[in-house]
Amino acid sequence: MQPFFSYPDAMIFKEIELGNIDLSDETFRMTENLNPQPLLESLREIGQLNPVILTEGRPSIVVCGFRRLHALKQLGRPRALARITPEDSHAKLFQLALSDNLSHRQLDPLEKARALFKLKNGFQISEDVLVRIYLPLLGLSPHENVLRSYIRLNEIHHGLRTCLSENRLTFSNMEILAQMPDQAQARISALMEKIRLSASLQKKLFEILKDLAVMGGSLSPGKSLDSPEALAVIEDVRFSPFQKGENLYALLYRNRNPRLSRAEDQFRDKRRLLSLPGSIKVSSDPFFENPGIHVEFEALNAQRFRELAASLQKAAQTEAIEELFKI
User: Which helix (H) or strand (E) holds 138?
Assistant: First the structure.
C-alpha cells in the first residue's frame, strides 16, 4: 500500500470558478459540519490560506476542502485556490482526502464513522484491512466490534448526529441509540430538542425505554414517550430542559419498576414522619430485599453529636420507625 501522507507529483495550482465545481458530489466528503463559524470569519478577515483539492474536468469534484468551499460560497467569493489532482481511482482519491484531513486535525467520531462506512461500502475495502490499518490510523482500537460500532454510527438519525456534535449526547450513548430502529431514533431526536440529560442519566433513560418496549411487546423503544403522562412532562413550561429530563426519567423509572417505586414512596413518607434534621440520612436497602435501614450522620463536635443522637432517640420512640421496617 502506498504511503498515506503524500500528494501526487502531477498536482498543479490554479484558481477555479466556484461555478465549475460540483459541490453536490460528496463522494469524498468526511467532514460533519460544513459551516463552522470560525472558518467563515477567518476567510472573511484573512482570505483563503490553504488550497482545496479538486479533480480535473468540468465540473471538478471536491476531494478535500468542502468546508472552505461552502464558506467561500457564503461569502460570495467567485473563485477558489485549488490543487488539481489527475484522475485516479476513487479509493485512492479518498485516501488522499483522509490523509489531508489527518495531517492537520483529529476527526470527530461521526467523521470517523463516515470515513469507515465509505471505505467499506463505497470503495470495497475489506474488513480485515479496515481493522488492521485504518482503525489505528484513526486512533481507534483494531477490533472488529469497534469497526461495526462505527459503521452503525454512520447510519444514525440526522437529529442525533446534531446532538452529538453539540455535545448534548455522549458517544457511548450514541452507540446504544444506533442499535435502535429508525422510528425510535427519530422520536428520541425530537425528545432531545426539548430536554437535557446528564451523561449518566442518558444511559439510564435509554435502557429504561428499551425495557419498557420489551415489557409492552413493542418493537419501538420510543413508544413510551408518546403516553399522555410523558408528553405532559416534556411539554411542561414550568421546568427547565434539565428538570424536564430528570422528571421524565423519574416517570419512566416508576413505570419500569412500579412495585419498587411504591416502596420507595412509602419509605420517604414514613421517613418524613420521623422529623429528623437534614444532616441525618436514613436509607433503605436499594431494592428492599433486606428489611434493615442505614443511618448516617456527621458531627463536628461533641455538642452536635449529642443533639443528633437525641433526635434519633426521639424518633426511635415513634410508630413511624416501626413502619419503616415493614416496607
Answer: none
SS3 category, 230: helix
pTM, 2 dp: 0.71
Helices (H), the chain: 37-45, 66-74, 90-102, 109-117, 127-129, 135-137, 144-154, 158-165, 171-178, 182-191, 199-215, 228-234, 241-256, 258-273, 302-315, 319-324
Residues 6+ apart with CB under 8 A from 140: 112, 146, 150
In single-letter form, the type of residue at position 152 comes to R
Give the pLDDT band (50/70/90) at residue 2: very low
Which cell numbers hold the place of 183?
422510528
Amino acid at 317: Q
pLDDT of res. 54: 93
Residue 68 · residue 31 · CB < 8 Å: no
| Other CB atoms within 10 Å distance of the CB of residue 42 | 15
pLDDT tens for each residue of 217-242:
877 788 899 999 999 999 999 999 99
CA distance 327 to 320: 11
Quote the cell numbers at residue 107: 476527526
C-alpha cell at 33: 459540519
The β-bridge partners of 283 are 294
Cα–Cα dist 179/210, whole Å:
11
Phi, psi of 117 (to 5 degrees): -60, -45
Identity of residue 315: A
Rg from Cα positions in the chain: 29
Other Cβ atoms within 10 Å of 56 Cβ, number: 12
Cell 437529529 belongs to which residue? Answer: 159
Q: Which of 87, 124, 104, 131 is nearest to 39 (CA)?
A: 104
- Which of 188, 187, 191, 201 has its CA nearest to residue 249? 201
- The C-alpha atoms of residue 201 and residue 181 are separated, in whole angstroms, by 21
The DSSP secondary structure of 271-297, one letter per residue, reads HHHT---TTSEEEE-TTS-S--EEEE-
